[in-house]
Amino acid sequence: MIYIETFFQSIQEILLSEDTWIQIGKIILILVLAGIFVKIAKSSVNKIFLVRSKAPLRISERREATLMKLMQNVITYIVYFVAILMILDMYIDIRTIIAGAGIVGLAVGFGAQSLVKDIISGFFIIFEDQFSVGDYVRINQAEGTVEEIGLRITKIKSWTGELHIFPNGSILEVTNFSIHNSLAIVDISIAYEGDIQKAEKVINEFLETLPDQYPDLVKTPELLGVQMLGASEVVLRVAAETKPMKHTPIARALRKELKTCLDAHGIEIPFPRMVMYTRNEKQNEVI
């Protein structure tokens, strides 16, 4: 009991000490000033890139978004690292830590190999422009839009809302869907009873009008011809080159437009049919 009373008395003395509250106030002030400085620095970076975007000579928007996020992350790391050093300097001599940094760094180096690997991998991802913020990519088993690229981690947001976070050192394979143009493939079924040549002519004439309606089309869609002879239909295939990652909405629009066009020209799109056949029971009689 004596030890417990002594312990609580020591805590009480510390809490009632004026020096303790002065140090706590300094710590809070350092953290608040660090947070304010980070916000101001991030805002300044945004303004710099906004002005840069209006310059006649500029890098791609993908690179600008990536570099802006990277600079904001680096500023955050540096400012809070300095703030932590200032707080530690209130209790211990930082110069002693710096003097022993060689030995400590060697010891930490063996335990931080994965961290160093992540930072080096992040540097090469940015330097080689493997992917950028806003790109739609597939990394390992995850697929989505790149939300952030840092020196240590990369964040991918899938279309259903999940946020995948990868250490850069674990990124072994990347598929980037946002660099080159995409291709929308649409198959149209025509009944065997229909006039295939008429259908091809109607479709070709219709495809010529699409680039003016859909800016995401790179060029006029092309009717490739008969793709397949099905059980009850002839399948025609249309290919449309689109801007990166615009193939899905363009494919949906093409299906709707083609259906409306074929209906307007009286060209039937087949549907599954069932033929009932009744055998003559007399033929099954045993003589």
From TrEMBL:
Membrane topology reported for the UniProt record: Multi-pass membrane protein
Keyword Transmembrane in record: yes
Mechanosensitive ion channel transmembrane helices 2/3 domain boundaries: 73-113
Mechanosensitive ion channel MscS domain: residues covered: 115-178
Primary location: membrane
Compartments, as annotated in UniProt: Cell membrane
Record-linked InterPro entries: LSM_dom_sf (IPR010920), MS_channel_1st (IPR049142), MS_channel_C (IPR049278), MscS_beta-dom_sf (IPR023408), MscS_channel_2nd (IPR006685), MscS_channel_C_sf (IPR011066), MscS_channel_TM-2 (IPR011014), YbiO_bact (IPR045276)
Mechanosensitive ion channel MscS C-terminal domain mapped to chain residues: 186-269
Keywords, sorted A to Z: Cell membrane, Membrane, Transmembrane, Transmembrane helix
Listed GO CC annotations: plasma membrane
GO MF entries: mechanosensitive monoatomic ion channel activity
Transmembrane segment boundaries: 20-38, 70-88, 94-116
Function: May play a role in resistance to osmotic downshock.
Family stated for the protein in its record: Belongs to the MscS (TC 1.A.23) family.
PANTHER family membership: MODERATE CONDUCTANCE MECHANOSENSITIVE CHANNEL YBIO
Protein's name in the database: Small conductance mechanosensitive channel
Organism: Bacillus oleivorans
